[in-house]
Every structure is written in C-alpha cells, then in structure tokens.
UniProtKB/TrEMBL annotation:
Belongs to the CAND family. It comes from Blomia tropicalis (Mite). Residues 310-340 are annotated as: Disordered. It comes from the Eukaryota. HEAT repeats lie at residues 49-86. Residues 1056-1209 form the TATA-binding protein interacting (TIP20) domain. This is TATA-binding protein interacting (TIP20) domain-containing protein. Keywords: Repeat, Ubl conjugation pathway.
Amino acid sequence: MSGQSYQVGNLIQKMSSNDKDFRFMATNDLLVELQHDSIKLDDDTEKKIVKTLLSLLKDNNAEVQNLAVKCLGPLITKVKEAQVDNIVETLCSNMLADDDILKETSSIGLKTVISVIPIDANNLISAVCKNITGRLINAISQQQNVSIQLDTLEIFSDLLFRFGSVMSLYYNNIKEALMPQLNNSRSAVCKRAITCIAYITISCSDQLYDEILNHLLSELQKTEINNTKIYVNCITVVCKHSGSRMDPYLKSILEFAFEFVNSNDDDLKEACFQIFDIFVRRCPKEVSQYIQQIVNLCLKYISYDPNYNYDDDENDDEDMEMDNDLDDDNQSEEDFSDDDDMSWKVRRSSAKALEAIILTRLDLLEDFYKVISPVIIGQFKEREENVKVDIFSTYIALLRQTRAIIGNSENSDKFVSILRNQVPQIVRSLDRQLKEKSIKTRLSCFALLSELVNILPNALADPSTQADQKKNFLNNIIPGILYSLNSNNSTSSMKIEALAFLNVLLKTHKPEVFQNYFNALITEIKKAVSDQFYKITSEALLVMTQIIPIIRPSIQTPCDSTMKSFIDSMYTITLQKLVASEVDQEVKERAITCMAQLICTFGDVMGNLQEAFTLFLERLKNEVTRLTCVKACIKIVSVKFPQPLDLSPLFPKAFEVLAPFLRQNKRSLKFNTLLLIDAACKNYNNYTNTELNETILNQMPVLISESDLYISQLALTTITSMILSHKSFNAIIPQSILPEALVLIRSPLLQGNTLNAMLDFFRSIVQSGFPGLDYNELIVRLTQPIMQPNQNLQPLSKQAYYSISKCIAAISLLNEKTALTTVSNLIQQVQKPSILPNSHPDSVQLYSLLTIAEIGKKLDLESVQEQIQEAILESFNSNNKDVKSAASICLGSVSVGNLERYLPFVLYGISQKQRRQYLLLNALKEIINCSANDTNLIQHLQPHIKSIWDLLIEHANSVEEGTRYVVAECLGKVTLINYEIFLPELIKNLSSESSYVRDTVITAVRFTISDAPHDIDLLLKNYMNEVLKTLEDVDINVRRVALNTFNSTIHNKPTLVRDSLETILPLLYKETKVKAELVREVEMGPFKHTVDDGLDLRKAAYECMYTLLESCLDRIEMFEFLNHVEGGLKDNYDIKMLNYLIVIRLADLFPSALLQRLDSIVQILKETCQAKLKANAVKQEHEKQDELRRSAIRAFISIYKVPDADKNAFANDLMAMLKRDDLKPLLESVQNSNKANNEIPMEIEI
C-alpha cells in the first residue's frame, strides 16, 4: 500500500509540473492505472487526485485537458460520495463560466461521468442527479448563451435517459424549464428540448403525462406554421417513447395530422407522416380504423414532386422492348438537383409510413398488392437517391411479408399468383434503374430482386414460357448484372452484391433458361475470379460453382465444342487459385469446392486431372483446408460416371490421411470423413486393400457410442460398406468393433436410422461368412446380456430388448428355414424359460416374444401357429407387465400373417370383457396399424370391420386412460379405412353423456389426421367445427384432448381449421388464463403444497399458439396474440419455457410485432433474469432457475438481433446487465450453445 501511495503521490506531483510533457505523461499513466483498477485510494489520496484533475481541466494544453476528462470516467466509480459531489459541482460551475474552452471541457466531463455510472449504483446516481439538476436547471432558460443551453439540454437528456426513475423527483421543475424552449427561435434548442420531454414521458406519472400532452395539443391549435411543426415533432417523439400511453390522445392528434398534412409546408407534411409512422408501429390496434385514410394519404404524397416532370414514355411501352444497350451515355435522373426543393422529405416520410403499415398489418396483405404495390412500383423512377432507397425498402418489406405468408399459409398459391402477375411491371420499372450510375440504387435493385426470386422461383424466366420473349425477363436483368460487374461502372461492394444476386438467380431458376447467356456471364465471372480483391474472387468462385451444373445439368448431356471451351477456361482459372498458396482462406476453400464441382459435372470429358487430384491430396493434409477438401472429395466419389475416374493421384494415399481424422475432436470433420470413406468403398473400392482397411477400422471402435448416435450410424454404415467390398475380413471386426456394437445395442437411446444401420451391419457379417462368426455365434453374442446377464451391469432397458429382437430377426430372415427354426426355439423359451440356467425367466420371455413378433411381421408362421397361440396365452398370465405387453404385440404381429385364424380369436377375447382385454386391444391395434397401408390386408380385414367398430365403441367408455388411448388409435385408423361410413358415426358420439367417450372420440379424430393428403380431408373439414366445440366442454380432460387434437390439426392439416380460427382462437386464448377454481392447496404433513389442475391445459393451449405460427400466421390478430404471450411469460416455469420458444419464433417470422411490444417483453425477461431464490433453496431449484434464465436470455438474444431492437433503451439496459459478472457466464453459455447448434451435417448435392 505504501508503494502505491508513493506511486500516486509521484504522479500527482508530476501532474502539477510546469512542464506540459510531464503533466501529459503523468495524467496518461494515471488513466492507465484507473482503467486497470490497479490502485486503491485512501481518503487523502482521493482528495489530491480529484483536486489535481479538476485543476487540469483549466490547463492551457488541450491534450492534457482531454486526458483529465478521460480520467474522470473510471475515477467517479472509485471515489466516495463527497468527492463525487465535488467533481460534479466543479464541472457544473465551470460550465457556467465565461471561458468557452473550459465550458466545453467541463460539459464533456459531465457527460463522461453520467455515461460511466453503474445503473445499479443508487446512492451515487441520486447524488449526481440532485447536484446537476440543482446547479444547471436554470441554465436551460439562459438564452443569452446558446452554447450553454445546448450543452445543458444534452446533459439533461443523458440524465433522463439513463436515470429516469431517479430524475422523476425533479420532473415538474424540468418540465417547467423545458416547455418554453419549444418556442425558441433556434431549432437545435427545440430539438434537444423535445428529446428531454420525450424521456420524461417514459416514466413520469399519469398526471404529469396528461399535463404535457394537453399543453402540446393546445399549442397545436395556434396558426403559426413554424410552431406547429415543432409541436407536431414533439408529439411524434413523445409517442415513440411512450407508446400505448398515447392512446387516449390518438384521435385528437390524428385529426390535427390529417388537417396539417394538406398544408403548403413540406416540413410540416413530413412531421405528419412521421406521426402516422409512429402511431402505426406503437399503437397498431387503436389506429386500425384510420389505416385506410393513412394509406390513401401515403399513396397520394409518395409521388408528390411539384418541381419535376417525370418522363413516362418508357413506362408506357406496353411491348416492353428490351433495351440491352449498356452505354452509359444516358444521364441519371438523379442529376437533377434543387437546393430549395424539400418535397423529397414528404415522399420519403410517406414511404416510411407505408412500410410501417405493411410490416404491421399482415392481414391486409392481399389489399396491399391491389392498392399499394402498383403505386410503389411506379415510384421506382424516383429522382432523389435517398428517397428511392426508401421506396425500394418499402417494396422489399412487402415481399418479406409475402414470404412469411407463403411459407406459413394455405393461401400460398393465391399470393404467388398475385405477385407473379406483377413481375412484368416490376421488371419494367427496374430495367433502367439497374443501369443507373448510383451505387445505392443498384444495390437496392439487387436486394429487391433477390427477395423476389427467393419467393418466386423461375419468376424471371420460366422454361414453360421461354418461347415468349415478353415473359423472358432475363433479357432485362442479365444486362443489368453485367453492367454492375464491369469495373468501370462499379465499386467492389457493388460487384460483390451483383455476384451474390447472380448466385441467387442461378439457384432459383431452371438451367435451360440461361443457355443464351453463358458466354457473357462466364466472361465476366472469370474476370471477377481474377480480381485483386479477395472478396470479389471468393464470391465469383461461388457463382462459378453454381453455374457449372447449369451448363451441363446431367452426365448424360453430351458436350459440344462450346461447352468444352467453357470447361477449359474455367478449369485453368480455378486451378490457378487452387495452386496459389498466399491467398485468403475463403478463396482457397471456394476454389477447392469449385474444382470439385467442375470434376463432378465434366469429369468424364475432361482431360488429364492428375494435377488437380495431386493438389487435393496436398490440401487434404493442410489443417486449414482439410474439411473443405473432404467435402469436395465426397462430391467427386459420389458421382457414378460411365467410366470411373482415374483417382490414382488421390487414392489410396488419401486413406492414410483420412484415418487420423477419425480421432479428431472436430465433429464435422469426423462425420464428413466417414461419408467420404463410405462413398469411396461403394464406388471406388479398387483403391482399397486389406492394410488400408485395417488402418481405418482401427479408428472405428471409439466412434460407436451412444454419446453421438449420428457418428455411430455413419461409422456402422461405413463398416458395412467395407465388409461388403469383400476386403475387410480383418480380425479387428470381431475383436473390437463387434463388442462396441453389442454395447451400443443395449442403449435405451438406440432407434431410427442408427438402429437400421446396426441391422445392416449384422446382416453384412452373416452374408460375408466371417470365419468363426457365423449366424449361431452372432445369436449367442447378441443374447448374452439376456442369457448370461452380468450382475455388475445395469439391467437392460425395454428399448434394448426391442433392439436385440430386431437384430436377431434381421439376420434370421436372411434364410426362411433358419427363421422358422429360430421361431420354434423361441416358442420353447417362452413356454419354459427356466430351462436356461443363468438367465431371468421374464427377460427370456420378453426377448423371445418380441423376436417372434418381428419375424412374424415378415414371414407366415402358419406351421407353428398352434404353439405360438398357446405360448402367447400363457404369457398373458405373467406377473411381469412388460412380458404381457410383448405378448400382445406378438399376437398382433403374427396375426397379420394369418388374419383369418387369429383375428376372430382376438375379437372374441375382447368381447368377453376378460381382465386381459387391454392386451387384446393392444394386439388389435398392432393388427390395424400393420394393415393400414397394405391393400391386401385391408381386404382381409373388411369382413370383420363392423364387428371391430362396435367393439371399439363399446370400450370407448373405459375408466382406464391407457385403454381409452388404444381404443382411440384403433378407431381413428379404422375410420380411415371406410371414412364415409365411420366418420359420421364417430362424430355422433361427441354428444355422449360420458366424458370418457367424448375424450376417446376427440383423440380418435386426431388419429385420422396425417400430414399426407387423404380422401377423408374434405369430409373431415365439415366436422371440425363440431369437434373443436369441445373446447367449451365442462370436463377439463376433454378440453385438454381437444387442444391436443387442435394442435395436431394445425400442424398436419391447417386447411381443416383455418376458416374457423375466428371462433376457435377466443376459446384457445381463454385456456391460457390461470383459473382460480382449478388451483387448490394440498396438505403434506406440516407443509402446504399448491396444485394447479389447469397447468396441463395451459401448456396445451400455448403449444397450440406456438404451432399456429407455422401455418396460420396470416389468420392471427398479432396484438391480441402477444397479449397472451406476455401473460405466459409471467406464468409457471413450464409455461414460461414455451413462451420463450414462441418469442424466438416471432423474432424470425414477425419481428415488427415484437418491436411494438419490446418495452414490456424486455421488462418481463429482465425480471426473470433478476429473480432470486430463497436462501434455503435446494440444488434442483437452482438448476431450474438457471435453465429458466438461459431460456430467457436465449429469447432476448433473438429479439436483440431484430433490426432496430438495439436502439431500445430497455433492451440496451438488459444487454448491459447480462454482460455484468453475475449473469455473464449464462450469456456466454447461451451464445456458445447457439454456435454449436449451427453446426449441422452437410447435405451432399450432386
């Protein structure tokens, strides 16, 4: 400490030196120490430093003054309150001094102090606010010195923005000082006063808010235009910051705006349109009745240009003669300029207001295309560049809203048709703009066209209409692209955007439409590849990669001389980039990808590829390019040419390089390496040998693990390919790989594609006849965990029995005789499991029954049917429920092979209402499921279908929920078999007095709905209103299953309910509320526990709301929807988690709606992040709390990425809070998780 005191004392001494260099260096050193928090200050040292720094503010050296000001920031958080008061008081006094330099320096110092005070330092904030307000509030009215006024207003603006709640103590005094400044003759003073007033309205009382608004409205009634503009602007800014609090005044303000918008003052017109813009964004529901009037005004004034006469000759040319002349002699319309003409402000503000309407009223999209779209397209000719960019932005907003509808609505075809009909007008208007000198204009054109072609593939040229030159709009667009790629006409950014659009264009249109443009396009693309700027080169290589398969869409397409000339030139220029070592990594990677695409497309007609393959091998050895090179090689070896390529420069040496990749931690490298080895073994197995296979197989055992099932799947698939290539009879397979596969097969997670890969692996072993590893040996090893269980290991999961049974069935069915023998042995094991000495009887029965079931699905077991039936009936009496369940599955599976024998037996058993009827119903479910997609089996089922139906209806009233669910699934599947008869019968039962029957019927309806089209859909649509009326059912369980059925419907077949959403949504929203009558207290000993019986109902309701965003976005009244989302964000843990997902989806689909509720949603998220648990909270509660915070942060990050969200004060405040020490680890965890989720397996495109 003494050393630090000496150091600080030395700095203070030098800061007081007469030598300006000493003062500069000492002050700079102090700044460094303060920023690194490396010194601790006692009271005496604090006083000295503060005194010295404040004196340096008057230093005659400007650099020393600047450093002194910078020191105040970090110092203010380290000194005590008395010194803070001293600093603030001195700075305020200096601001009111006569010395202009000192005033400016002190002003900067105060702003620095305000900006660095932590938002949670309450005592410090209170002291600073009190001191500054007391000292400077009178300076607001000091009109003798405008600079003091401006600086003071800016300081109050910062104070009000950062510490509004503390400043509320002084709001009345500040308001009284600010209001007269709205009449100030200097516009800068007025603007800063307006900002301060707006910040006051964020957190002031309702009474003060009313006073401010009433004053502003009363002033609006005066006739002075200049003052009117100021007050209109003030109201605009206040509305922007106070949102829905403005609702009571909306009608009055709009009436003024509608009156003033027709004035002769362009600035006042602009202010009126800004009011429209803000009201539409902030009060969308309240302004709805005025939307049509606002739209009409916007359309009127978007073309308001009294001082210019547009030449519409070209726009009136109905023949749309395509002008391909690229001469730049035509003068740009924007060359016109008139400094006194302010009408552009009116056009720009009206365009922005239109954009706001488009973004907030998705329900009016069809009307927008009829009314707004033609006018905007006509205004693409706008002469002012900035206005033109905003007009383009408005139309792009319209296209983006259309994309949201097309992806999530049954009206997709209608909107596609509407937009396609407007394509000719769009292209006509853009034709000249694409050849403008203005870079901004052309960038906007490409942005608009990119949106258009993403929504409408083949929009600019459709092969079906290619003969009609009037519909081939590429004749307009391609010359515009070439114009922008020409180095004389464009900047680097312009070329990059032109190439990016060309890439999108090539992706979204059929190859044949580009045939006439290859020569011109490839010439410019090659020039771009040779460009010195690496970003242009990279983008050009990407475009070249895209155009290569368009030149030759299929390997069967013959190559003519023109095509070969393209190949040679593209190969040469790509090879140059591939050879170059001192180029950007992105260029290296895209050169590799481009060369791979070239070989994939033209490999059979290209000459010597030795050099390219040699370079691939080199790049494969390079850590920077190896992943890209692996992906490139996958593309090459996956193509089956008429004659295989000569890959000798690449393989087999590449296998030696690839094998170590399987040990790397990078997951993407591992799975791509496995894909490459698998493809190479299938298509180029002549390059492998036993030694290489052994090297690769040595890396495989560690990859077969339940920790990464996708890698396990690829590893098993690759091993299977190597086995079937007849070159992999390596000892490592039975010694190391098979044991790992047998461990994985016991995993409860094994299913789907990984399980199928496992089945193929075992089949390949049996088919290849491995020495010492025949069928019988495999059966022994597969059943070892059952027949000889290891007491030290965990018992097998139920899924493990299914997996083992499937594997045994798969290898047994390779030989029908073997399969029948196996079934006979399994029947004996079911009947006499105790004959196996070391095994558990229940485990043996379970595995045996499941294996018989798997074989019975594929093979007719008539020869052993008596024994099977007897074994199954005995198993029904087992004390083990899993054995009984397996027996019912087995009965259903073997019945499929002989319905005439088994089905009557099953139906009779169900009708007897025995205690095993649930098992028989489960068997019936298995029969129906297996028969549903087999026409032959359905025919065998038809004679019994009425009996089945009657039995199922009879059991629909079962008290047991499990039984009802099985009956519902069977009823749904049977209804699909003969829907014209059974669907009306099913719906009749909705009127049953029994809630159990209604529950079963609604669930059965859910099983009639699939994602694939079905003949039942038209009839089902007529009954959906009746089904969903059960959302009003008195029974809570009926309402819950009705919500589940509604959720399934809008996910799989939204067309069934879209027309009824107007009546369904109020019922849905009703179920999102917490209902007091469903909340009860349960006494548990000395404790009381609250039970919410409505929780599952609310969860189901919010799940429906989440699903609605997939396909019914255009039918949702978004502001009502958001009301319930906000309620859900304050609900129970599970409900909150669902609503975080809804917010994340809304941030992607409808960001403009979220922006309008940003303040309230962010505040709720902030409360969640700040919530504290009780001191006696257990570990599980802490984990739950952390997960809740992570989800809230994840939702907030999605919101914060929305354009303009980072301009919101509440959002910035929360982001600053998340970056502090206590929440920073959670923020980083979420960000890292988001990055990891972005890593997805590559889809190979050949």
